[in-house]
C-alpha cells in the first residue's frame, strides 16, 4: 500500500471518522484515540502487511516503524479531520505540534535567536531576582548602608546581577559562535569588545562620539547590544570557516584566531555596531511608544493584545525570539516593560484549566482531572507547556478562552506600568522581579499579583461559560 492507502484503510478499520477523536505520532507508531474501541477491528489491522503490530493501551498504538509512522500519522490526521489528542502526553502533543509546523525564514531567524539565548536563561533569572530583591532592600530600608548585615546582603545580590548583566554580550557572543559553527571563545571576545571603554575612545578619535549626549553617539560602548553581537559573530564564523579551510595545520592554532579577529573587528565596530544601534533605538522607541504611552487606553490595548497573542507564539515556538527585544530594552532603559503583560498568558491558562477540571469532575472524566491536577501546580509557577500541550490546545476552545481572559491581566499590568528587572520566570515565581516600574517596588509586585488574579478569574469565566460539558466528557 501507499501511505495514503494505508491511512484510509486504518481509518476504515478503526470505525471511521466519527469514531476518531485524536491522533499523534510517537516515534515508531501512530497513536489513535477512539470514542468506542469495540468498533475497531484489531485482527484486521494486524493482518495488514505494512503494520508491524497493534497494541491497545491508553489508546490504540499502531506500530509502523520510524519515518513511516510520521508520514502516515500526518495523512491519517488529515483524513480523519482530527487534531492533537487530550489522551496523549503533553510531550507527545508538543512533538506532534512542532512536527506539523512549516518553517519560514522569519521563524528560523527567531528560532536561532532563541537557541542562542535559551541556555542563558538560568543566569538571566538569577540576575533578575537578585536585582529585584536588592531594589526592594534599598526602597524598604533607605538607611540599609548603616545596617551592616543588610548592606552585605545587598552587595552580594548586586554583585550577582552585575556579573551577568555586565558581560551579557560576551555570553551571547560565546553562544552565537557555538550556534553558527565558529570558535566560542572568539565569539565571546567579540561580544565583550562591544561594551569596552576603548570603543568610546576610538569613537572620539574619529569624531563619532557625542560628549554632550553619549547615548546619542553614532558609535559608543554597548551600541547595538546583543543584536550587533549576533550579526558580528555570524560574520566572524563565516570568515573563520573560510580562513581555516585554507590555513596549513601547523599555523592554524596560532595564526588563524589573530587573522580572524583583525579581519572582523574593524567592520564590526565601524559598521555593524552603528547600524544595529540605529535599529535598536527604533525598536526601543516603538515598544516604548506603545508600552509607556501617556495614553492609558493605548497601554491597555497593548497589554491585552500582548497577553492574548503570547500563547500562540509559545505553541509555535516563536516566543524565544522576543528575548532579543527584552535584552535591547533592558540595555537601553534598565528594565523590561512588555514582559509582565506577556507573563499573564500562563495565568489565563491556569484559570481555564480550573474551569475544565470542574466540568471534568461533573461529567466523571477522571483522566482529565488527573492530567490537570498534575499540570496545574507547574502552571501556577509559570511553566505552561504541560497545560498548553496536554489540556488547552488539544481541546481547542480553551486555548482561545485562556488568552481572552489573560488579556485583562495584561491590560491591568500595562495600565499600572509594571516593569520587570529581567525576563524568564513567570507566574508567581516572577513576583520578585517586578520591581522596576515607575512606582514603589513593593506596589509593583502587588500590581503584578493583582494582574495574575485577574487573569485567573477571567480565564476561568471565559472557559467555564463557553465550554460544553459534552466537550469535556468526550475529551
Beta-strand share of residues: under 5%
Question: Largest sheet, if any?
Answer: 4 strands, antiparallel
Spatial extent as radius of gyration: 26 Å
Briefly note the structural class of the backbone.
mainly alpha
Helix content: 55-70%
Which H/E pattern describes the elements?
Answer: HEEHEEHHHHHHHHHHHHHHHHHHH
Structure description:
This protein is mostly helical and 475 residues long. It folds into three domains: 3-83, 2-Layer Sandwich (Gyrase A, domain 2), CATH 3.30.1360; 108-291, no CATH class; 296-473, no CATH class. Helix content is 66%, strand content 4%. The protein has helices at residues 3-13, 42-46, 68-80, 90-99, 105-117, 121-140, 148-165, 168-180, 184-193, 198-205, 225-244, 249-291, 296-315, 323-333, 339-342, 344-363, 366-380, 385-395, 397-415, 441-466, 469-473; strands at residues 20-26, 29-34, 53-56, 60-63. The protein has a four-stranded antiparallel sheet. A hairpin with a 3-residue loop joins β3 (53-56) and β4 (60-63). α16 runs parallel beside α20 and α18 packs across α19.
Descriptors for this entry?
4% strand, 66% helix, 4 strands, globular, mainly alpha, Gyrase A, domain 2, single chain, 475 residues
Short account of what is shown:
66% of the residues lie in helices and 4% in strands.
Which helices and strands appear, and what pairs or packs with what?
Layout: H1 3-13, E1 20-26, E2 29-34, H2 42-46, E3 53-56, E4 60-63, H3 68-80, H4 90-99, H5 105-117, H6 121-140, H7 148-165, H8 168-180, H9 184-193, H10 198-205, H11 225-244, H12 249-291, H13 296-315, H14 323-333, H15 339-342, H16 344-363, H17 366-380, H18 385-395, H19 397-415, H20 441-466, H21 469-473
Antiparallel strand pairs: 1-2, 2-4, 3-4
Helix pairs in contact: 1-3, 4-18, 5-8, 6-7, 8-9, 8-11, 11-12, 12-14, 13-19, 16-17, 16-18, 16-19, 16-20, 17-18, 18-19, 19-20
